[in-house]
Design a protein that fits this description.
It comes from Setophaga kirtlandii (Kirtland's warbler). This protein is an alpha+beta fold and 185 residues long. 46% of the residues lie in helices and 11% in strands. The chain is built from 8 helices and 4 strands. The relative contact order is 0.15.
Length: 185
């Protein structure tokens, strides 16, 4: 729930506001408040527990695409890295068991895209990273329009409790607000 600074309730409301800006209905937002999954940048979560929760959510919502962090967690945040490990564990578990996720009217499988972590230089050169990203291998490259970038910034600003100085820098010059390179897991 984002309760690292005892701001869980505030951060839940900020998440709902941010999702509203992005056009995501509140009914599609699930906040997990689990005592074994504390919001703490130094704590690695149990990948098996998190994988179970992720798989349950995927099945309950009939999700066919998951976008998550890569092994670097974009910012090195232990919780982000744990989420990647859990999703990777989930994918391996599904493949090993030979299972497929059922959609409402047809069988399909859930695909997973992981967001590429880049070095500090590339992270903060904004749209200039398009040139580099176009030359490097990836499975998907999303380049946002100016309108989409402004919408993403409005959504980020909803997270007022988290807008520390380095996140202000992020809003000004992060390549993640302009483009995102992803690969299939």
């Amino acid at each position: 729930s984002g309760n690292y600074y005892n701001q869980g309730e505030i951060r839940k409301k900020e998440l709902e506001q941010s999702c509203c800006v992005l056009g995501i209905p509140a009914s599609d937002v699930t906040v997990i408040d689990h005592r074994d999954l504390p919001d703490d940048p130094a704590v690695e979560w149990d990948p098996q527990l998190l994988a179970t929760l992720v798989l349950e959510h995927i099945a309950a919502k009939n999700i066919n695409l998951v976008v998550t962090f890569d092994a670097g967690g974009v910012s090195g945040h232990a919780n982000h890295i744990s989420l990647y490990k859990a999703v990777r564990y989930s994918v391996c578990k599904l493949l090993w068991a030979g299972l497929v996720l059922l959609r409402k009217q047809k069988q399909g499988r859930c695909r997973v895209l992981v967001l590429e972590s880049v070095n500090l230089f590339r992270k903060y050169i904004s749209f200039l990273d398009v040139l580099i990203s176009c030359l490097l291998p990836r499975d998907a490259l999303f380049i946002l329009t100016e309108e989409e970038t402004e919408q993403a910034k409005r959504a980020m600003r909803c997270h007022r409790s988290q807008l520390l100085w380095f996140r202000q820098l992020y809003l000004l010059s992060s390549r993640y607000l302009v483009l995102n390179s992803l690969r299939l897991l």
